[in-house]
Write a structure and sequence with these properties.
The structure holds two protein chains of two kinds. By secondary structure, chain A is mainly β. Chain A is built from one helix and eight strands. Chain A has a domain of 67 residues: Ubiquitin-like (UB roll). Helices cover 8% and strands 31% of the residues of chain A. In chain A, the strands form two sheets. A five-stranded mixed sheet of chain A has the order 2-1-7-5-6, covered by helices on one side. The radius of gyration of chain A is 14 Å and the shape is globular. Chain B is 31% helix and 24% strand. Classes of the chains: A mainly beta, B alpha/beta. At the A-B interface, loops of A face loops of B.
């Protein structure tokens, strides 16, 4: 049913999704890397704890929130991958860090 | 035409609280709500149930506010029991944070005067040092000189409160009419017929609680409600884990985890469509000086809304002398005063007379100012 688009690019950029190396094409989003990694969820919601994966892929639904390079609550679909990027699952609401201030 | 025990004009926090309060007494009022063209101050409210900045030079307002904060737990409990809605009331005390020695001195003088004016009512408060403030809230900035603390302050969700009041009102047999802006009124003492949304409603009693709309409605009922808009802006961060137990005058964390930053004041007419970058920046800067860890959080929403302000900033409550049975209620603290409106003011309306402690809130106080000038 699904076929690769003819202009598919080679997966040349290696990122870490939940600590596991994944290779994606240059210019892909962190959310694409999350989907390729095959995780059951990239985050759980703050209120009910429901699991979420990237959904709209265009910056609207916020289901793809993840901790990217140590920064929580980033919309993975709006972040372009860079070599060595660390994309980590986020459990519930992000924690503010009063001790760091 | 339909007959009711009372007509409440205005479906925001003030009108809904009074209408709900009337149903508690066994009355069957109708609540007329203008619709989405209304300014809806209730939907822009910051959500404080606030005592420690209210009523300097006006002890009657200090008492009214304190009384309302005191009624709030009963109101929240009742609404929860009747509707299953949790309006998010928490009253852990609150802080007014000072960022300079001048602010601290001015605040100390302010609180001392407030305490003097409280008289026998008393006012429990403390001026806290930086270190004492740091024990109550996490991660305060170096610039925080101290804070005033009072045990009476708290916060709640304005939106859940509005929904809870509406649900409680309807559950108790009240009649709600949306899209019912008032187009005409026939008034006589204890005999009112109001046309709204193409229907006619009749009752021996009417309460004007239409926020800024009261200014135009009041003269139709032999009343005066000289109120105008004062714009406030609010910034909202993404949800974060619970961290801030105590609300401050300008920063509070909601029960869902968002941090709200507020309390700007400006004269911008009736414009609520724009937010001004200069003011948003000022609000954010002050919030970050108070809690530097806020700087890491993303702002996800911002809005402005219009406070319903009288010339002296105090509420206006009146019963019409010309047309007894017509009441007016005007204020910019629809959340703080919800307890008083539902559990104290509504019984006065039902009894047909405002209590003597509300006499200083009459709009006639502005006539005295004009004739003196």
């Amino acid at each position: 049913m699904f076929a690769a688009r003819p202009e598919a690019r080679p997966a040349t950029v290696e990122v870490l999704v939940a600590g596991k190396p994944v290779r994606v094409p240059e210019g892909a989003s962190a959310a694409a890397a999350v989907l390729l990694a095959g995780l059951p969820a990239i985050r759980t919601t703050p209120v009910s704890g429901a699991p979420r994966l990237p959904y709209c892929m265009m910056g609207v639904c916020f289901d793809c929130l993840a901790e990217i390079d140590g920064v929580a609550n980033r919309q993975a679909c709006m972040v372009t991958v860079a070599p060595g990027m660390r994309i980590a699952p986020q459990q519930g609401a992000r924690a503010a860090r009063p001790e760091s201030a | 035409m339909t007959r009711h025990d009372a007509i409440v004009i205005g479906g925001g926090l003030v009108g809904a609280a009074i209408a709900y309060g009337l149903t508690r007494l066994g009355l069957k009022p109708v609540l007329l709500d203008e619709g989405d063209v209304a300014h809806r101050a209730s939907r822009g409210n910051f959500g404080l149930v606030w005592v420690q900045s209210k009523g300097l030079g006006a002890p009657h307002y200090q008492r009214w506010t304190r009384a309302s904060a005191g009624e709030w737990p009963a109101l929240a409990g009742e609404l929860g029991a009747r509707t299953g809605l949790d309006v998010g009331l928490r009253q852990p005390g609150g802080l007014h944070v000072c960022l300079s020695d001048e602010e601290m001195e001015a605040r100390a003088a302010y609180m001392a005067q407030l305490a003097r004016e409280a008289g026998n009512l008393g006012l429990e408060y403390r001026m806290l040092s930086h270190a004492e403030t740091a024990e109550l809230v996490p991660g305060i900035g170096k610039r925080v000189v101290g804070a005033s603390w009072s045990p009476y302050d708290g916060h709640a969700s304005p939106l859940y409160l509005l929904r809870g009041l509406h649900a409680g009102f309807v559950e108790a047999g009240g009649t709600y009419r949306p899209n019912a802006g008032v187009s005409e009124a026939k008034v006589a003492p204890n005999d009112f017929t109001v046309t709204a949304g193409g229907e006619r409603f009749s009752a021996p009693c009417v309460v004007l609680a239409a926020g800024l709309g009261n200014a135009g409605l009041a003269p139709m009922f032999g009343l005066s409600a000289p109120v105008g808009p004062q714009r406030g802006q609010i910034l909202v961060t993404e949800r974060t884990r619970q961290l801030l137990d105590l609300p401050t005058t300008t920063v509070r964390q909601t029960e869902e985890g968002s941090v709200m930053i507020g309390d700007s004041k400006e004269d911008a007419g009736f414009d609520t469509l724009t937010q001004t970058p200069a003011i948003m920046r000022q609000m954010a800067e002050r919030a970050v000086l108070t809690f530097p860890w806020l700087a890491e959080l993303n702002i996800v929403r911002a809005w402005s809304a219009l406070r319903v302000m009288s010339a002296d900033g105090l509420p206006i409550y009146d019963q019409s002398e010309q047309f007894p049975g017509a009441f007016t209620a005007n204020c910019h603290s629809g959340v703080t005063l919800a307890g008083a409106h539902a559990l104290l003011f509504a019984p006065m309306v039902a009894a047909g007379a405002l209590a003597p402690e509300l006499a200083p809130f009459t709009a006639r106080r502005f006539e005295h100012v004009r004739s003196a000038a």
